[in-house]
Amino acid sequence: MSKIKENIQIVQEEIEQNLHENERNIRLVAVSKGQNYSAIRSAYEAGQKIFGESYLQEALDKKKFLDDLKIEWHFIGPIQSNKCKLISENFSWVQTVDRIKIANKLNQYKKSERPLNICIQVNISNEDTKSGINVNEVSQFAGLINNLKHLNLRGIMAIPSKTNEKQALISQYQALKDVYEELKNSYGSVDTLSVGMSNDYLLAIQNGANLVRVGTKIFGKRLK
Ligand SMILES: *Cc1c(COP(=O)(O)O)cnc(C)c1O
Asked: Which parts of the chain fold into alpha helices (H)?
């Protein structure tokens, strides 16, 4: 068995064993930034269908070699407004929307029948250096996105602050879960709480995440 296939199975099993109450459908996004296209192909052949990329040009370069695969692509990196057209055309999800200008452009360039799935990025640790909007702005921002015809609001995404203090992390997940539940009550399309990476996905799931973004634990060290 390939190492990648083995890793995916391990991650999937661990997810199964750590399900949060009421949450049965956890989606695993394999984060393939810094990995070459053949690693993506191996993961796909092992049954993985959802992949996340953070850098547009890198993603486009690899996508050329993967055209024959039915991959659901998620954009999970910082977004410059001049990249919105290509992001809209090449991804089915964008998880890192935190400015209305970007949302408008993504909406404007979405030409296909299917709307673009959107997560609002939330800055849960309130660090100035981080992307994402503050918790108290989410509700208003969600209303704006919900009005855009070609966007489908699916939920929120966050990168909790790096800390070894488990309790501090848990309180961040819980705050996110509260915001998520509130959104879910307001919008029928909302079904996604995207938190958790290689180092914390189990803890994130235990605290209500239902989409995790795992890179190195599946693919090993990034090439760059
Ligand atoms: C790189 C990245 C990941 C994956 O990180 P790992 O630690 O390799 O699992 C997840 N989410 C985002 C937003 C990333 O940029």
From this structure: 3-17, 37-45, 56-63, 84-90, 100-109, 138-146, 166-186, 201-206, 216-219
What tens digit of pLDDT does each residue of 116-138 get? 999 999 999 877 777 999 999 99
CATH of the domain at 23: 3.20.20.10
Q: How far apart are CA 71 and CA 55, in angstroms?
A: 17
φ/ψ of 46, rounded to 5, equals -85, 5
Residue at 224 is within a domain: no
pTM higher than 0.85: yes
CA-nearest residue for atom 6, ligand 1, is 215
* Nearest atom within ligand 1 for CA of residue 31: 4
Residue of the CA atom closest to atom 13 of ligand 1: 76
Count Cα atoms within 13 angstroms, Cβ side, for 54.
13
CA of residue 211 to ligand 1 center, whole Å: 12
Count of structural domains within the chain:
1
Domain that holds residue 184: 3-219
Question: From ligand 1's centre to the CA of 196, what distance in Å?
Answer: 8
How far away, in angstroms, is 213 Cα from ligand 1 center? 6
